[in-house]
Amino acid sequence: MAVKRQSTMAVKLDNSWIEQNSDAKNSKTKNNYFDGLKVTGPYKMLFFIITFAYFFEQMDNWNFAFIAPSLMADWGITMADIGKINFAYFVAMTLGGLTGGVISDFIGRRKTFLASIFIFSLASVANGFAPNLLIFTITRAITGFGIFCLMVCSQVYIAEMAPSATRGKWQSLTASIGFIAAPFIGILCSVVIPMSPSAWRHIFLLGGIGLIGFFAGLKYLKESPRWLVAQGKVDEAEQVIEELTKAKVDLSEVASKVEPKVKTMEVIVGLFSPKYSKRTFVILLFVMLTVPASFVITTWTTTLLSQRGLSVDATLTASTLLMFGVPAGCYFASLIADKGGRKIPMAAMAITVAVLSVIFGKLEGFVPIVVCGFFMIGACMALNFITYSYIAENYPTRMRNTSTGIHNAAGRLATSVLQLYVPIVFAHYQFSGVYNLIAIMVCLPVAVLLLWGMKTGRRSLEEIS
């Protein structure tokens, strides 16, 4: 009996070659996950849910920068007390990054993502009902824990779900839309806070609306196929890709190359193994200097402007206008993130932040402060989100979320320590001294990144790892 041979042909989709069986109508194509597949329909819905979660996460993240001066007046607390609240917030963020990274490697990206939304949304409501400074500090810390669980998980989730050619674009584009929350919360605070001494509570209560993202995610959010393949669930991973893209894919080849799961301690040891030690050193140095500097800009500028002599109304107005630099910076990152192997745009943005910080620290007058501050915060956010993509890309699937959590947690831990020293630097060196410190911190790791950092842009995650 004659045996019919199946013929195959090469098909090019968005610059990625796949092999396709041309005989059977329901045949599968061998492909590297989403590489070469178009982002349409249900696939876009996934990124929409991430964007929605980003929006309310960042409402809860940015609101305290606007609320702090009002809280100082309402409760009679000092800049040192604000520093302690921020310290607790970033320590909890550190724990959230570590926990979120480890847990999502074991229970999956989807479950961790949803749990994070649930935690920070409820904690925000609890902030609004806090009766005293101690309870407020605790509930604010829980908010930070949930926020950074989601941030770490979402970085890895987008990196694993987006096509390799546009990974940086989707990372930054979802953020640029979600981070419209920054100017939105500024406008909201400008309207609500002047209503009464305790009107700041209403801002926190609105954070509970983020639970809508939780319930939407329960229905529409899909698990990462890369994580599923790492768990041996190849058929389920192929089904997820088909549901999102309508393409029938064969992941048997990429599944055969997946390395076995490793324990958390093995991941930590692996970070400093000969293969990964150089990239680990480069990333740790970069995040432990640039992340704290970035958060001084985003969390302290409103308070520092109020201490500089601006009225409450002028401070809120200026800070709100500055916040339009947040989505603008994220959008700009989406345009440049995939160029220069990722590390070139990172270096360029770091230098830009340094230059603008020095200028910002010396400016007088409402208009110059707003204009320079807008570009400074825009460059800062572009730097942050290109860095987020870069971190997640440097490690294989089996260690990606845990290693991302460790790196980001290191950055947040350094940030929490710096929060205690910002009031001291301000007391001794005034407004300009704080922003000169920022410039020094973001410049220091640039040479190391350019010399020893990997180029990751427009390369598949499997090739990089």
Automatic annotation (TrEMBL):
All copies of domain Major facilitator superfamily (MFS) profile, residue ranges: 46-457
GO molecular function list: transmembrane transporter activity
Annotated localization: Cell membrane
Primary subcellular site in the record, as a coarse category: membrane
Membrane-spanning segments: 36-56, 87-107, 114-135, 141-158, 170-193, 199-218, 281-302, 314-337, 344-360, 366-388, 409-429, 435-454
Keywords: Membrane, Transmembrane, Transmembrane helix, Transport
GO cellular component entries: plasma membrane
Name of the featured protein: Putative MFS transporter
Keyword Translocase: no
Membrane topology: Multi-pass membrane protein
Keyword Lyase: no
Pfam families (alphabetical): MFS_1
InterPro entries on file: MFS (IPR011701), MFS_dom (IPR020846), MFS_trans_sf (IPR036259), Sugar_transporter_CS (IPR005829)
Database matches in SUPFAM superfamilies: MFS general substrate transporter
Naturally occurring in which organism (per UniProt): Bacillus benzoevorans
